[in-house]
Amino acid sequence: MSARKIKDGVYWVGTIHWDRRLFDELIPLPDGTTYNAYLIKGSNKTVLIDSVDPVMEREHVANLGSLHVDELHYIIANHAEQDHSGGIRRLVDTYPMAKVVTNGKCRNMLIDLLHIPEEKFVVVEDNDTLSLGDRTLEFITAPWVHWPETMLTYLREDKILFPCDLFGSHLATSDLYAFDEARVYESAKRYYAEIMMPFRTVIQKHLKRLEGYKIEIIAPSHGPLHNKPSFIIDAYRDWTSDIVKNEVILPYVSMHGSTEAMVNHLIAALIKRGVAVKPFNLTKTDIGELAISLVDAATIVIAAPTVLAGPHPAAVYATYLANLLRPKTKYASVIGSFGWGGKMLEQITGMIGNLRVELITPVIIKGHPKSADYLALDALADTIVEKHQALGISK
Ligand code: FEO
After folding, report:
1. pLDDT tens digits, one per residue of 187-196
2. How many structural domains is the chain composed of?
3. How far is the CA of 135 from the centre of ligand 1 (A)?
């Protein structure tokens, strides 16, 4: 790859990580990712917006070289996480004149994470501007998308927003822009679910504030750019809204078939009652698919057998993750089977303190389900329908 032109004097100088398959040693990346960085040549100053993951910094420096960047005056750091800031460490040596422009919190984090000397920084505040001569950058602090130091950079004359992770997608593609909207939508939703969802209400406020800016291009730090900004802004409005779907997410694991029989019965009971259901076999599922589904489902039912005295570890992992991601789910329940006893239910329900859910009466049984157990699952399905009806999302 080499640099790609966005507008006269504005270039993409990022890198594409086609075969990365895991982020933070946690998040599956079925479609790879990109680390987008941007170069702006103003009439007086040349500026780089963000950098790349250090694993691809050689290609990044080559992209800058393809534009004959002899002098770099500023490096804007929108975010301290190393997939965007990591390359800055090398760049401040390559371009000794360059100052790193960022807010105070981000400066402190970059000193800690990358050991960049304090004298290299220019600290900016919310709404501060930086003149490049014929162009002006405005800095918009936007804490908690998704770290506390995050900020967005707006190029006024060209109406381009550089929001770093916000509006991003883990999608390696040769498309500079989001032409394939269906594919980008799924990747962006996965990204939102795994990275941004815990900060849903904060993002609502940032979206409101961005209404005050005329934006023609959104240039995020992962995935393709948006030259139809309403596509991704509308998606974010939907995902961050309080509206949930008439849908049950059903992560499950079963050792000898008893919990699975309960799951299969509940699936059929929900379908019969007009409720969409998405089961996830936790021994096989892509955990990112589960995260995507949590974005807008009304209800989650965790299904787990008892191992020794507690829940199966796969169910613990999924429950812990769901609690971490703080979806807008309204209701939760637990189903499962045990052989001789244990505290599976107490441990699962004790792990969902972040979820602002109403707990619907669980169905925990001994051994393989009997007729009364199936009736209890039917009653659970009935209650879910009633709850969804109360929300106005079910017939
Ligand atoms: Fe893409 Fe929060 O780093």
Report:
1. 999 999 999 9
2. 2
3. 27
